[in-house]
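Fill in residues.
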């Protein structure tokens, strides 16, 4: 009999000594602009029973409870401002995973407390959710995009001056040319203003579209310019228009890959396309200055 009693006392001591639940220590997680939901990790490392119906989970933000899961009744309780809150995976709960998933909108930054009880044993851990706000594209990609727009603006302005001074085109054609290019540059500048601020929202997508899509107009404009300037189209002029169209197609393909992805995919393809459009504009300008023969009215 005494053997049993000693065993009983020993067991009791062991049980009391391990009444505390321990957690994998995660100090903080970050929510960046690309996360559509926030997962706040919480994993108990020393569960004994491994049964959902022995587990009770509570989540608190800055000390006030907003979510609980009662394993005995298999029942979830949520604060109404955290409607999206849920255990990441109920099937992993017996293994100690009590991580929480929340929609981005319902996950303010702060200290989240995960409190887990398994029968009479309990413990909690605190994870800080940090929001970080960056722009959609990398800073270098942003710089390149802005650079292509600035270079384009300078080139089209110079081109308008050259055309106005050196070529005897009708005034209405000159104005039409100038206005069409002005519109493209204007839309691109609006696009940059929408694109650069931190975040990945529809405004950034619209911004990118405004930079890339209207550049289409530049292809027929270049063709129109050459047909107005040369009596017979030189092969080189045709090649330039062709290259400009290629640049546009590359830019739009890159845009298509980027626009729905966060972080954007293949930003470099889109930038390469925009750069080709600029390079063709630069060559076209030099060509007009050096080789272009002014038409006589
Ligand atoms: C946000 O997404 C990144 C990359 O997918 C991930 O590592 C991180 O844990 C996510 N943050 C949160 C709070 O869910
Ligand atoms: C829900 O959470 C908010 C913010 O933490 C708190 O002000 C409010 O009292 C909570 N509501 C309930 C019903 O617990
Ligand atoms: C749960 O834990 C047990 C034992 O540690 C392991 O064998 C099993 O693969 C785990 N299950 C999952 C889904 O992680
Ligand atoms: C979360 O807790 C840490 C450590 O106690 C503290 O430094 C930090 O300011 C807290 N964050 C918020 C948002 O309260």
């Amino acid at each position: 009999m005494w053997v049993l009693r000693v065993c009983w006392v020993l067991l009791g001591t062991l049980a009391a000594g391990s009444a505390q639940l321990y957690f994998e220590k995660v100090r903080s997680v970050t929510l960046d602009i690309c996360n559509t939901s926030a997962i706040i990790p919480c994993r108990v490392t020393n569960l004994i029973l491994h049964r959902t119906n022995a587990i009770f989970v509570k989540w608190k933000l800055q000390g006030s409870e907003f979510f609980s899961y009662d394993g005995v009744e298999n029942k979830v309780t949520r604060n109404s401002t955290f409607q999206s809150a849920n255990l990441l995976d109920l099937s992993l709960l017996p293994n100690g995973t009590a991580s929480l998933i929340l929609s981005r909108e319902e996950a303010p930054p702060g200290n989240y407390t995960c409190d887990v009880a398994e029968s009479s044993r309990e413990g909690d851990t605190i994870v800080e959710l940090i929001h970080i706000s960056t722009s959609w594209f990398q800073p270098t990609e942003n710089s390149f995009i802005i650079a292509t727009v600035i270079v384009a603006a300078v080139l089209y302005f110079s081109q308008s001056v050259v055309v106005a001074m050196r070529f005897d085109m009708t005034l209405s054609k000159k104005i039409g040319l100038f206005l069409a290019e002005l519109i493209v540059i204007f839309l691109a500048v609006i696009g940059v203003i929408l694109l650069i601020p931190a975040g990945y929202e529809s405004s950034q997508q619209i911004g990118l579209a405004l930079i890339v899509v209207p550049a289409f107009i530049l292809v027929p404009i270049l063709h129109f310019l050459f047909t107005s300037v040369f009596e017979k189209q030189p092969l080189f002029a045709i090649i330039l228009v062709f290259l400009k169209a290629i640049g546009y197609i590359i830019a739009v393909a890159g845009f298509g890959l980027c626009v729905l992805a966060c972080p954007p995919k293949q930003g470099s393809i889109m930038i390469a396309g925009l750069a080709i459009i600029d390079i063709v504009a630069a060559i076209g300008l030099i060509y007009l200055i050096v080789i272009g023969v002014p038409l006589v009215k």
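The domain at 19-131 is CATH 2.60.40.10 (Immunoglobulin-like).
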